[in-house]
Amino acid sequence: MRKEDFLIPMDFKIENGIYIPGNLSSGFDWKFFDSIEGLRECGTRGRLEHSYYLYHYASILPDNSLILEIGTLKGGSAIAMGMGILGKNSKIITIDPGLLHIEEIDKRKDELNRYELQITNIDEVVNNIKTAKLEEYITIISETSENTLKRWDGRLIDMIFIDGSHKYE
Prior knowledge:
The chain is of the alpha/beta class. It is built from 6 helices and 8 strands. Strand 1 and strand 2 (about 20) form a beta hairpin. The radius of gyration is 16 Å and the shape is globular.
C-alpha cells in the first residue's frame, strides 16, 4: 500500500449534530449505519467519522484479508469495517469477554469485573450484525483477547483495531 491510501480528506460537515465526511465513498451508507439500534452509543462514541475511517481502512485491504478487533461493545466498529470488506472474501474476528447471554451475566460478573468491562447482551450485537447483513463476514468471540490469542492458529492479521479494556493487567 502507498502512503496516499491512508490519507482521508478531512472535509467534514455537521448534519443534525453529527460529523459526516463531506466526500463519502459510495460504499459507506452512513444513514443506514446510524439507524442501527444502539450504534450511536458504541465504541466510536457516536462519531461517524471514526466509523468512516474504519470503513475506509478495511475497504483498501486486499481480498482474503483478516481483520481483528479487540473490544466489540455493540458491534459498531465491526459493522463499519464489515461494510468496507463487503463483497470480498475477507473476515473480521471481534473479541470481547463482556458479550454474554442474559443468563451468563450473573454467573460471570465477578470474573469479568476485574477487567472493568461494559457487559453487553450478545444477542443485541448479533442482531446489529444481522441487521447490517454482515453475519457471513463477522465472527464474535466472547472471551478475553489474552485467552483467544493463546490459542491463535498463526493466521496473519492484516488489520487490527484495539479498543478493549485499557486496564493493564
